[in-house]
Amino acid sequence: MLIRCLAVICLVAIGLSACKRDAWQKITDCMNSGNAYESCRGAVGDEYPEKHAEKVRKAAEQGDAQAQAQLGWKYYKGTGVPENHAEAFAWWRKAAEQGNKSAQYWLETIKYEPE
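^ thats the sequence. predicted structure below, dont judge the formating
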């Protein structure tokens, strides 16, 4: 919520491009300081899907179950990465093994049909 509020203030005070740069820098700084993806995600995810997917992938590869579940969804929908259902299910399985409820739900609900 704080990042979104800062983004609105930033839009009004210094303009759109500087605001996007500032919001992206805040998330990058948060991730680089060792915080988990879940505590760093913010307003820039929808505006920069490829960059957001890179950050999510980095956290997922480090074992963050929430990021793994979200990366699975990105692959399932093709948001910021190429659509790939096999890859989606692989990431959901990793997250589900760590107890992620969203990934467990998607694995139970969405039926995988190899192409």
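The longest helix spans residues 16-32.
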